[in-house]
């Protein structure tokens, strides 16, 4: 929910800052700059939170693309979502490698070696 709210606020502030009404744009401009100062830019957002959003069954990567689509042009959106997808694939490959190593250790430790087998037990 945090990512959705963050994108909604950023979209509203950007829209109001670019409004033709000088009163609205005069208020929203400083609010947007303060928001960017304290929160940081959306493109520099912590990718682990975006990973959690992508792995949530309700949202997936298309939702992230949709939220970014309100804030950035299509080229930047595709570049950002490709980077997120690539990082997720790397994370999966790393996890898969660790899982293979730990499962091979468990199998080898559960199978007794020939010199460890007691002839009387078998």
TrEMBL record:
It comes from the Eukaryota. Residues 1-95 form the hAT-like transposase RNase-H fold domain. One of its GO terms (molecular function) is DNA binding. Pfam families: hAT-like_RNase-H. InterPro entries: hAT-like_transposase_RNase-H (IPR025525). This is hAT-like transposase RNase-H fold domain-containing protein.
């Amino acid at each position: 929910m945090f990512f959705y709210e963050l994108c909604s606020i950023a979209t509203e502030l950007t829209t109001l800052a670019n409004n033709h009404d000088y009163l609205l744009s005069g208020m929203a401009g400083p609010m947007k700059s303060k928001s960017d100062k304290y929160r940081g830019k959306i493109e520099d957002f912590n990718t682990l939170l975006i990973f959690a959003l992508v792995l949530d069954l309700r949202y997936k990567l298309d939702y992230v693309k949709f939220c970014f689509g309100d804030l950035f042009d299509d080229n930047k959106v595709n570049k950002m979502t490709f980077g997120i997808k690539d990082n997720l694939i790397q994370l999966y490959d790393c996890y898969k490698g660790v899982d293979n190593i730990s499962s091979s250790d468990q199998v080898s430790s559960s199978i007794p070696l020939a010199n460890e087998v007691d002839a009387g037990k078998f």
